[in-house]
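User: Teach me something about this protein's shape.
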Amino acid sequence: MPFSEIFSMALQNIRANMLRAILTLMIIAFGIMALVGILTAIDAIAFSLNDNFSGLGANSFSIERKWAEVKSNRGGRRQKVGEAIHFDEAEEFKERFVFPAKVSVSFRATGLATVKYNDLKTNPNIVFVGVDENYFDVKGLDIEFGRPFSKTEVDAGQPKVIIGRDIVKQLFDSKPEKALDQIIQVGNIRYRVVGVLKSKGTSMGSSQDRAVYAPLLNVKSIYGTDDTDYDLVIAISNAKDMDAAQSESIGLFRQIRKLRPGEDEDFEIFASDSLVAILKENTTNLRLATIAIGLMTLLGAAIGLMNIMLVSVTERTREIGIYKALGATRRSILLQFLTEAIVICQFGGLVGIFLGILVGNIVTPLLGGTFLIPWGWMFLGFTLCMIVGVVSGFYPAMKAARLDPIESLRYE
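Assistant: First, the predicted structure itself:
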């Protein structure tokens, strides 16, 4: 019997038991939906975080105070904090670091600032950052309207700011050109707007669109204290020089910190590529856990489908006897029932993949990700459905193929 005829008969039998087929199909669809939906959301969020980490610059690293856990005398654990990176240390490093690189010194003054323009004002959730002339290049931030700070403005601590798009939306009716050269207040201090950043979106609960950047010395004079910890970020020109740049940075900063030979560093190097590596490792484990859970869900669907196919074999025993009496071979009977199981699974997979992409991309924007079509997970869904169809349908199909035609024709 040609396979096209076997396939046609399988579709006819599925249509004859439409309600049962739909219920079985939906069990599989929801399993695939959960699997593809979660994996899609994980991928989309991972890509978004990767883009934001890359905003530090693929060839950048930072020098930070050391954070480490040490044992206390009572057997517990307490946190040992390295000394903050002071302004003079950061500036000395920036001046003495002779390497093909850009060095940026900055510090986050507050995340609770309020920005005012005439009678309008934002909520007290604006990030206020003091930056130098290299900050935007090192961080990979693009100024869409206006210009960056000049070195003269930074050295003089002039009251000028560059603002994010959320502030433009709230105070200037989403018109960046209207914001340029206007006077705004950050807290009680007046600043002139000289630039507007290109929108970067939200990641990990923070948004560069909801930030105001002013010259470092200006912000230091208002918010700086003796304990202020300054951010020191280095972006090198060539990624191949990363190890050499980090080694030179460690040596120079040890001198600046006046650490003796053999004494442990009270600071650490944190590279942007290490963030990406951590992200990849964690998301890989998360994907594997999701696939394991999805396989358990599909195992339940496979058992349900096998049960339905066994019931179908029992109900159609007399029909199978007629087929065999008319000359149908065991192979034809086996292929017909196996095809029915696979078709039900594949239709369920199609519905599940569509719902999974929909669910994954509904959840993703809420968590800071972007729309994504998961071709790899779609292929995984189809493959798993094929495996479930074969595994679930093989035993019922073998049982149908082995039925004795005489006993089948006498079956009531």
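Now, about its shape. The mean pLDDT is 83. The first helix runs from residue 3 to 16. If you'd like, I can walk through any region in more detail.
User: That's plenty for now, thanks!
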